[in-house]
Amino acid sequence: MIRERRNKDKLASYYKKFMEDGVVDPNVHPWVAESWQRCAARKLPHETMPKLNKLSKEEIVEHQKLHEFVVQYVDGLYEQNKQHFNVHNLSMLLIDEEGYVIKNYALPFFQRIIEDIQGMRVLEEDVGTSSISVAREHKVPFLMFGPEMWIKDSHSGDACSAPVLVNGKIRYIISFFSLDQNDLPYDMILSLLLTMKYSIEQHLQMLEYWNIYQMTMNELPVSVYWVGPDEQIKYCNENGVNRLEGKEKLEDIFLNYEHIPIKKALKGLPTHRREITWITQDRTYEDITTVLPVKAGNEVDGALVLTMSIEDLKTTIAHATGYSSRYSLYSMVGETNEFLALQHKASRIARSDNNILIQGEPGTGKQRLAHGIHQASPRAAAPLIVVKCYNGPSEELEEEFFGAIDHDNQPTAGKLELSLGGTLFLDEVEKLSVDIGDKLADALKNGILNRETGARKKLNIRVIAACDSNLKRLADKGLFSKALYELVLNTVIRVPPLRERVKDIEVIAAHILAEMSAQHSLPPKKLSPRALQLLTSCSWTGNIKQLQGVIEQAFFHTPGGVIEADNIKLPSDRTMEKSWKYDKDAFIAAWKSAGGNISKLAGMLDVSRVTLYRYLKKYGLGPKAKE
């Protein structure tokens, strides 16, 4: 707070009046008066400086080291203004947010030597009323005249303090103190204080941004280089450092440096997302590289290089878009010999690199098994790319598998490229047309074609295919690609239907209930003996998926912790037949068994969601029927 010059004799009389009579004169600044009253209530001594709280020598060293980043900056500010401090007998303190002096600049503070004041706490409860305590309490700069200070020994000079704020929080306090008896140029001193306050705040804000920037740069799988006009590296992130292998210049490590468009950028010409090979003595990087000119005004003052391994880029995209395994092999449960044999075989073949064909009826858990195999394989850290196959337009499927060219004439990655190093899961593979199947098999076997060079690039992909039908019979009849069938035939796993593992129903049902409880943060529930008997007596033509739909419905419609037989609504056998297409009651039974979930019902009836919405409208069910 900028204040007008005050008559110090009058201020001294106000101080004496308060100390002797306990009366606050109306002319005393209200913030000072409030502080005096608190100090009096604390019975703080006011004649001479009391013994202050102080850090140990070791703690002072650690304290200054902790704040080294700001001390170095304030050192520089002081050096630029040292002559003003000398002329006006000013000292300066740098104080942390808890009131401890980090460093003392120029003349002694409160007549103490530098070593004494550093590490001391100078809050109101320590030294009484001071410009430091007022500025700290009210978060504004404050000029305090000598007779307003609580300690009488300090009345010989004036003080001015300012809080250093970042995001509204006090980080530091800088304080000027003068021992000069003469009139001071307060406007000049306040201007210097406020300038230093602003400068430190901007520096701290910049450091905060810089720290976040560095964290970001070091976490991203990108090598970043800032190159000066002399092609010396001015900055690089951790990935960039790793590629340099101890060298200081890019041209010292990369053999094809002249072909990397850095010189081009230094002439003002940018390069955007270009495929570039970076060659060192020991290895080669296939990258997507951007090089941008850095300008100071209208002059090019350097170049910014952003380069990322194509393999890392694909893996990052895959994981960022959720292309990872959601289930382990042990998320599938059972105790029958049939199930244990399946689980053991899956665990064994997961460690190999063979392509796999999973066969089984709808709802048996083929997708979960594929996820589990990927997670148990050496490819677990790489992406799992799932393609739900369908017999759609060839152009759409080709773009999905092989990528396309976007509106900016840039190539977009297809599912094959995203699968590199990982697993490609073809769900309901039997629905692929022969033409698409042949093209897919050719790419998987011989490599994918580079649009620009015409050369083929080998694909490191493991294929897991799942089908409900007899794939061999379809291939023999010419309804499925023989080449793709032969490619996925390395290992075949048959998933048994639920009717062949009836004894597992109890374990599966308990597992589903536990998952439901955890997923929805609801109390656990269990099946009564009669409810379990009811479930084991059902044929479950829709297998585990159908069982799950029934259990989920019972879970949400049972108020207590025990699901009774009356809480379970079993689907009739005909719900899995085509009768639902013309029998409203059959459709409603299936709708209820799926708990009103469109996705579950689509799986149970083996139809598309579009078809279901048509029948929901036909039978007056679903959200629109409630409007």
From TrEMBL:
Record bears the keyword Transport: no
A GO MF label: sequence-specific DNA binding
Lineage: superkingdom: Bacteria
InterPro entries xrefs: AAA+_ATPase (IPR003593), AAA_lid_NorR (IPR058031), GAF-like_dom_sf (IPR029016), Homeodomain-like_sf (IPR009057), HTH_Fis (IPR002197), P-loop_NTPase (IPR027417), Sigma_54_int (IPR002078)
Protein keywords: ATP-binding, Nucleotide-binding, Transcription, Transcription regulation
Gene3D superfamilies to which the protein is assigned, alphabetical: 1.10.8.60, 3.30.450.40, Homeodomain-like, P-loop containing nucleotide triphosphate hydrolases
GO biological process annotation, one example: regulation of DNA-templated transcription
Pfam families: AAA_lid_14, HTH_8, Sigma54_activat
Sigma-54 factor interaction domain segment(s): 332-556
Official protein name in the record: Sigma-54-dependent Fis family transcriptional regulator
